Amino acid sequence: MDKKLIGVDLGGTTIKFAILTAEGEIQQKWSIETNILDEGTHIVPDIISSINHHLKLYNMQPEQFIGIGMGSPGTVDLEAGTVIGAYNLNWKTLQQIKKEIEKGTSIRFAIDNDANVAALGERWKGAGENDNEVAFITLGTGVGGGLVSNGKLLHGVKAAGEVGHMIVKPNGYLCTCGNHGCLETYASATGIVRVARDFAEEFAGSSKLKQMLDDGQEITSKIVFELAKKNDLLGKRVVEQVCYYLGLACANLGNLLNPSYIVIGGGVSAAGEFLLKRVDKYFREFAFPVVEKTTTLKLAQLGNEAGVIGAASLALTFE
Amino acid sequence: MDKKLIGVDLGGTTIKFAILTAEGEIQQKWSIETNILDEGTHIVPDIISSINHHLKLYNMQPEQFIGIGMGSPGTVDLEAGTVIGAYNLNWKTLQQIKKEIEKGTSIRFAIDNDANVAALGERWKGAGENDNEVAFITLGTGVGGGLVSNGKLLHGVKAAGEVGHMIVKPNGYLCTCGNHGCLETYASATGIVRVARDFAEEFAGSSKLKQMLDDGQEITSKIVFELAKKNDLLGKRVVEQVCYYLGLACANLGNLLNPSYIVIGGGVSAAGEFLLKRVDKYFREFAFPVVEKTTTLKLAQLGNEAGVIGAASLALTFE
């Protein structure tokens, strides 16, 4: 029988698991809650026992697996298989993930950060069409990125792919990283709401979004996009601004890397073609002519499954 | 005897050649003029006869070489070994470089574009310290770039490394590429003069640079830097602006690729530490904290020889 892969997508609220074929077909999937109590010390033992439990359930042995791949928040050391500073997991100190999971499951283990792993997933089985040149941007609470070139993830010294921290407006909004004008401050879910609040102050026309903000109602990026789609004047202005900065960042990324595809995923990308069309307009305005002709912007296709699929693909190096 | 490499750096005025060891030590070098007459049809035959002539001179046989590597202007097709659209060589139609040179010399041949080859040279034997993560920016008549990550040049679909066409100021100066606000329009030799002319119009204080411009004297980027070093007020303002955009571009490049080194070369980099210090100041302002800590800006070290050395290294794949 062909050997299988296990993919693990470790998040702050759930841990997703999948068993896949070496071709990336999901055969089984399940998930458990992330227990971040006691400085996150339950997380790795929970992962180990959940994998072992399911192997028993499916009557499978460790020898039937090529390996386990995992995506994690925080700063990942690929070689050592460790994670540090994953604050949404309460992991403040160095976690020996690889060592513990290999010992606990008797299966080889590889790890990378969550944005990189999602990029691998979309590249392999999603919008990236298994191309060797794919950039992935995820628009969520923050803005993350994963870059594949020459068929491999780019890691740089430590932190390649910090698309969310490209400066799109010098002296712009203050970012959690300490800099000003990072893409994330405009194009993340929270950034979009920030732009809305900012623009609302000076907005004089008629707008439901303006009304809601003035009423103190809770606004989300989803609401902003929904109202913009219904022609809300303020909503449209906010979306235009957000897409302008996204288009500028995609163009500068394209001018450096000229990938076949820039894949846009994450919660905000649920706005779909409405978002993509506007980002593409500004991308075309700012991209170098050859890049404009050869790099295509696309929406992500795998949704939640990008993580487990991409994570699993990390283990293919053990083949 | 250990096999050797041949490096060829094809430029619009001269063609540089070198014979190197597989470790990148130059053992012989020479150059010939580039004859661009008759649509550049003499160039490839001239290269072949110059190589064959020097092999005879040094009493060497084709079998003693691992291969020939060449850097060329224009759009290079690596696989096919062809070049098109190298306008400073009068090459408007497709040139079958690899085919002709392999036939003419009986030595294997590899080619890439001139900026990439210079990047490989600086990475291998220059400021890049043979690191796997090196970005190279060349400030000349234009602004070019070459990016090495995971130890390999990034090509993207066609045109990765277009550092000169990163947008540093939306709606800024019009670039030859048709876009506005490309780095090249501010930080190339001609861009710097453009900034000087632009700033001079609104400059009211005392400045030799202002005087020279008003007198209609010919200004070069070298003069601008020399005067700035002598505390010329307008000169300093121009240099500050140029370094601001360079620092911003380096930071965004760093945020995406997080290389060990961003190496700055080309004619303008002759301004040395005076330039580097100011670019670094803005790089640090705009770089993501981890990138600021792990990516170092450096001046190029090989000067004119980067081309032949990097070109030669292309042939190492034939080993």
TrEMBL record, chains A, B:
Pfam families: ROK. The keyword Protein transport does not apply. Transmembrane segments: none annotated. Its EC number is 2.7.1.2. Signal peptide: none annotated. Coiled coil: none annotated. This is Glucokinase. It comes from Liquorilactobacillus oeni DSM 19972. The lineage of its organism: Bacteria, Bacillati, Bacillota, Bacilli, Lactobacillales.
